[in-house]
């Protein structure tokens, strides 16, 4: 018996057991805490309950103009929804002039509908609370870099261009601000939907309708701020055409049943693999356990949202992972029956099965990518778990299963080919 390979094999098995325990129960190590997967994974609208609403733009715009208006409207809605503290909202544009908003876990649905449906309001307010100019007068707002006069370094900023009316109003506002002593009196706040998003100080009178917002922020914030300002100037009315509330009790019941069904299915798969393939079956059980944890921890780390169709995608990918192992083990069995050694049979079997496994997974992966690109809501949830599952399946089938099988053979515990179903 090869003691070194036995230690490595047992170490892998121990890590799998530890990973399963952490996934189910979490881990607390003083300042570091890992929550159980069920508590840390984001649940979709159909599982956690919440509200979804479909809004339609009331505008005659078409083509690129309509597309721009819809993108800006989506940006506004996203900002408002984030202000409600909703976890993983799903906001997508449908049918050119409609926006679908899904808000999992939201309890006060009327507040959400009121917040989403109202018209955006962008205001520039002086230190005395007077509105100087509104978003309807902003023609352009873009992120840019400017040179800091003190440090000489390039810093992110936002450029503003007003129309003729806005330019005159802004000139008068900055002129009044400059007449005040240096300090808070020279602040002009930028307010979107009643929330202050920036408060720059006036450094000079703006005569040409062009201004910049500076504040020592990075280019990501400058880009977001410019987008919000452009979106705030959008005068498009959104009308609610469909809304529905999903109760969390139905969703959580469905989740419990789905998990229960999934556990039963996985146990039956494990029993089948152990009875039919014996030692390779044991290896596949370990590999599939690694696969399941890879998928779950990946979804948690990516903050992906789990939906009922997503659970279906996960179970489907588990079936594909088992199918890959079956294809590989059958090829290995053929090589053993041809008279080759166990080690040579594993190498040759994996090599011959590789193209079949890759072809089957890659075609399904392409389908998952298409569903994610063009689907909405639950379809995206199905696609996400399917894509993650397929990638994890290929890794475990091609790399992990082969490693574990070669480690087991290298331990020289047995050379009985009947234990390898030959």
UniProtKB/TrEMBL annotation:
Keywords on record: Cell membrane, Membrane, Protein transport, Translocation, Transmembrane, Transmembrane helix, Transport
Outline the extent of the SecDF P1 head subdomain domain. Answer: 128-236
Q: Where the protein is mainly located, per its record?
A: membrane
Residue ranges constituting the Protein export membrane protein SecD/SecF C-terminal domain according to the UniProt record: 237-405
Q: Which SUPFAM superfamilies match?
A: Multidrug efflux transporter AcrB transmembrane domain
Which residues are in the Protein translocase subunit SecDF P1 domain?
Answer: 70-127
Write out the GO MF terms.
protein-transporting ATPase activity
Q: In which compartments does the protein localize?
A: Cell membrane
Q: Name one GO biological process term.
A: protein transport by the Sec complex
Family listed: Belongs to the SecD/SecF family. SecD subfamily.
Functionally, this protein is described as follows: Part of the Sec protein translocase complex. Interacts with the SecYEG preprotein conducting channel. SecDF uses the proton motive force (PMF) to complete protein translocation after the ATP-dependent function of SecA.
Q: Which HAMAP family match?
A: SecD_B
- Protein name as annotated: Protein translocase subunit SecD
Gene source species = Anaeromonas frigoriresistens
Record gene name: secD
């Amino acid at each position: 018996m090869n003691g070194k390979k036995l230690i490595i094999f047992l170490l892998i098995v121990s890590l799998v057991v530890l990973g399963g325990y952490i996934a189910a129960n979490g881990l607390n190590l003083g300042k570091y805490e890992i929550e159980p997967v069920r508590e840390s994974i984001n649940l979709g609208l159909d599982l956690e309950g919440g509200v979804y609403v479909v809004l339609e733009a009331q505008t005659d715009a078409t083509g690129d103009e309509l597309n721009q208006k819809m993108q800006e409207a989506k940006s506004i809605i996203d900002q408002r929804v984030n202000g409600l503290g909703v976890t993983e909202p799903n906001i997508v544009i449908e049918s050119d002039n409609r926006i679908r908003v899904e808000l999992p876990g939201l309890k006060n649905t009327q507040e959400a509908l009121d917040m989403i449906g109202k018209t955006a309001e962008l205001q520039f307010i002086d230190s005395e609370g007077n509105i100087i100019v509104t978003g309807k007068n902003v023609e352009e707002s873009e992120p840019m870099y400017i040179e800091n006069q003190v440090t000489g370094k390039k810093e992110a900023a936002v450029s503003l261009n007003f129309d003729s009316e806005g330019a005159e109003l802004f000139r008068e506002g900055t002129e009044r601000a400059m007449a005040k002593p240096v300090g808070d009196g020279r602040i002009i706040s930028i307010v979107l939907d009643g929330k202050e998003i920036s408060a720059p100080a006036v450094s000079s009178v703006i005569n040409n309708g062009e201004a910049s917002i500076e504040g020592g922020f990075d280019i990501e914030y400058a880009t977001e701020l410019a987008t919000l300002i452009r979106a705030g100037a959008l005068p498009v009315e959104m009308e609610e055409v469909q809304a529905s509330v999903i109760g969390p009790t139905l969703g959580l019941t469905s989740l419990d049943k789905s998990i229960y069904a999934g556990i039963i299915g996985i146990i039956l798969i494990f029993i089948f693999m152990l009875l039919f393939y014996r030692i390779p079956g044991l290896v596949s059980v370990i590999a599939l356990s690694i696969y399941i944890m890879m998928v779950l921890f990946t979804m948690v780390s990516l903050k992906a949202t789990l939906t009922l169709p997503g659970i279906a995608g996960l179970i489907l990918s588990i079936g594909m992972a088992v199918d890959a192992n079956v294809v590989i083990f059958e090829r290995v069995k053929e090589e053993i029956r041809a008279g080759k050694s166990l080690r040579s049979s594993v190498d040759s079997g994996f090599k011959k099965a590789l193209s079949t496994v890759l072809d089957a997974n890659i075609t399904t992966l392409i389908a998952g990518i298409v569903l994610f690109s063009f689907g909405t809501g639950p379809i995206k949830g199905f696609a996400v778990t399917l894509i993650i599952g397929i990638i994890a399946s290929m890794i475990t089938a091609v790399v992990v299963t082969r490693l574990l099988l070669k480690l087991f053979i290298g331990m020289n515990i047995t050379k009985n080919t009947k234990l390898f179903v030959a």
